[in-house]
């Protein structure tokens, strides 16, 4: 009987630990884009990491809502993946080459963020904004 109780406590401990260690977080980010194709590209890029559970971009508000497992991924990882796909966001500016390769309908008006980029930023690479 004692071994059954100990086994039950052990299994319950594992269950509780796994639920706490795999906590999810939902955040919203500003991501530039224009159309339905942008929506597909942005959401696919955001979900490139298997620990991102959901990603939904709203064309009208230009807001990306992402839910991810906090133990395995960060918001920077998600936003870098989006910038790697060619879409500027609140943390990263997409490389000029990536932005230029987007379909014409996806090329949004880009503000000159050069003053916000770090000094060592190469415009042909994804740049972290200050």
UniProtKB/TrEMBL annotation:
SUPFAM superfamilies: HMA, heavy metal-associated domain (SSF55008). Residues 1-22 form the signal peptide. One of its GO terms (molecular function) is metal ion binding. InterPro entries: HMA_dom, HMA_dom_sf. It comes from the Bacteria. Keywords: Signal. Residues 24-90 form the HMA domain. This is Copper chaperone CopZ. It comes from Soonwooa buanensis. The lineage of its organism: Bacteria, Pseudomonadati, Bacteroidota, Flavobacteriia, Flavobacteriales.
């Amino acid at each position: 009987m004692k071994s059954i109780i100990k086994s039950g406590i052990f299994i319950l401990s594992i269950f509780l630990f796994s639920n706490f260690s795999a906590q999810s977080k939902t955040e919203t980010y500003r991501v530039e884009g224009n159309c339905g194709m942008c929506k597909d590209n942005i959401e696919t890029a955001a979900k490139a990491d298997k620990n991102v559970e959901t990603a939904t971009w709203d064309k009208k508000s230009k807001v990306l809502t992402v839910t991810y497992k906090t133990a395995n991924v960060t918001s920077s990882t998600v936003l870098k993946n989006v910038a790697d796909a060619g879409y500027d966001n609140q943390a990263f500016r997409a490389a000029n080459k990536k932005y230029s390769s987007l379909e014409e309908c996806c090329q949004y008006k880009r503000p000159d963020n050069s003053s916000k980029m770090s000094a060592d930023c190469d415009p042909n690479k994804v740049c972290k904004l200050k």
